[in-house]
């Protein structure tokens, strides 16, 4: 067993930590206050290779392994939690598009996405079908040489700023998960409209609903085989769920580091706050939990890189990581006293942002169903 990063990965980690500290952290609150999307920042991350980590060099990416991608998700989130979506979302998109999209779609969209110049959102969730993808209401009807899409997608990250959407819709309505197909839909296609949400966190990500009113797409914009998109997506989720975990842990660990420095400096009753058990013990407990989940996450990525089963592990990460991260950041706010409750510190924003990913890509309850199915067997999953 070898728990060490390679020399290249260790250097990559230091480069990213320095980039996050210098370029990302100073404007983290700015994007939250203004609600603006930092396109220039995504392009800067593109130049650093962050938006195309899981895209092969053939389409302008670096073809990085999953472990290296996980390092990026963790380190970027230390500086700007929402900037780490560039790693997580684009990695998921690469897993869906590169193996399954037509050559025309890959040439037009994959390279610009990898460069950080074009934004693509994944449109799965609906008002009546969140994690229950098999029962989505959106429809794609085959007409002539293409499809006509109709439906509503909700809670879509990047909805208000995306240049295109990978839309999942039913092509065989009565077939459950076996009747779902995916399509690349340009934002400017007639019949596409978007409503942006006023979210409590992840403000810069511009979540919203996407409405499809008889949107026509050519057949070469279908992603993969007809009726097979559900299974393509699930494999991608096994990666994005681990990256989400590391993204949340990065924000939590940065908060713990800042709080540890604060309690060393702050004095009360003639002593440093760090000398009081009531202060030190909560920090130690969360530091321990985060380290354990962190290395479990890297093990899940190690499994994926070797083509070994890791669905159960991915759901364990997605359930536990965001939950513990939110609890740890909340504790950091309390240990800063009334200063922690102000917007002068990044703690309250990190808490709001992390809570959003307790929901995205499947809630804790959904992850427990997946774990039960994988561990106990399909006949014993909770219902």
UniProtKB/TrEMBL annotation:
Pfam families: Acyl-CoA_dh_1, Acyl-CoA_dh_M, Acyl-CoA_dh_N
Necessary cofactors: FAD
Residue ranges of every copy of the Acyl-CoA dehydrogenase/oxidase N-terminal domain listed in the record: 6-117
Transmembrane domains' residue ranges: none
Keywords: FAD, Flavoprotein, Oxidoreductase
Residue span(s) of domain Acyl-CoA oxidase/dehydrogenase middle: 121-215
InterPro entries found in the cross-reference section: Acyl-CoA_Oxase/DH_mid-dom, Acyl-CoA_Oxase/DH_mid-dom_sf, AcylCo_DH-like_C, AcylCo_DH/oxidase_C, AcylCoA_DH/ox_N, AcylCoA_DH/ox_N_sf, AcylCoA_DH/oxidase_NM_dom_sf
Domain Acyl-CoA dehydrogenase/oxidase C-terminal: 230-374
Family assignment from sequence similarity: Belongs to the acyl-CoA dehydrogenase family.
Protein's recorded name: Acyl-CoA dehydrogenase family protein
Organism the protein comes from: Alicyclobacillus mali
């Amino acid at each position: 067993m070898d728990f060490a990063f390679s020399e290249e990965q260790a250097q990559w980690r230091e480069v990213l930590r320095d980039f996050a500290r210098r370029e990302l952290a100073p404007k983290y609150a700015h994007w939250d206050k203004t609600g603006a999307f930092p396109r220039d920042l995504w392009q800067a991350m593109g130049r650093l290779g962050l938006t195309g980590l899981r895209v092969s060099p053939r389409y302008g990416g670096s073809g990085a392994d999953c472990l290296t991608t996980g390092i990026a998700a963790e380190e970027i989130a230390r500086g700007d939690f929402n900037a780490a979506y560039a790693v997580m979302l684009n990695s998921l998109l690469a897993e869906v598009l590169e193996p399954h999209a037509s050559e025309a779609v890959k040439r037009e969209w994959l390279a610009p996405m990898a460069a950080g110049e074009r934004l693509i959102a994944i449109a799965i969730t609906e008002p009546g079908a969140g994690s229950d993808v098999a029962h989505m209401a959106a429809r794609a009807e085959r007409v002539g040489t293409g499809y006509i899409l109709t439906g509503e997608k909700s809670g879509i990250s990047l909805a208000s700023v995306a240049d295109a959407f990978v839309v999942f819709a039913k092509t065989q309505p009565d077939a459950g998960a076996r009747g779902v197909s995916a399509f690349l839909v340009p934002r400017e296609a007639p019949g596409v409209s978007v409503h942006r949400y006023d979210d409590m966190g992840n403000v810069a990500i511009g979540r919203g609903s996407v409405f499809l009113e008889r949107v026509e797409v050519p057949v070469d914009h279908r992603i993969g085989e007809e009726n097979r998109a559900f299974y393509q997506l699930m494999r991608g989720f096994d990666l994005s769920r681990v990256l989400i975990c590391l993204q949340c842990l990065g924000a939590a660990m940065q908060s713990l580091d800042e709080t540890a420095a604060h309690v060393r400096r702050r004095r009360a009753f003639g002593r440093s706050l760090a000398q009081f058990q009531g202060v030190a013990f909560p920090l130690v407990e969360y530091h321990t939990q985060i380290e354990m989940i962190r290395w479990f996450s890297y093990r899940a990525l190690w499994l994926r890189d070797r083509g070994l089963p890791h669905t159960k592990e991915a759901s364990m990460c997605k359930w536990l990581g965001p939950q513990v991260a939110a609890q740890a950041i909340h504790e950091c706010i309390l240990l800063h006293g009334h200063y922690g409750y102000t917007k002068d510190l990044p703690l309250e924003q990190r808490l709001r942002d992390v809570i959003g990913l307790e929901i995205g890509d499947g809630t804790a309850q959904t992850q427990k169903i997946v774990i039960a199915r994988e561990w106990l067997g399909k006949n014993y999953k909770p219902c």
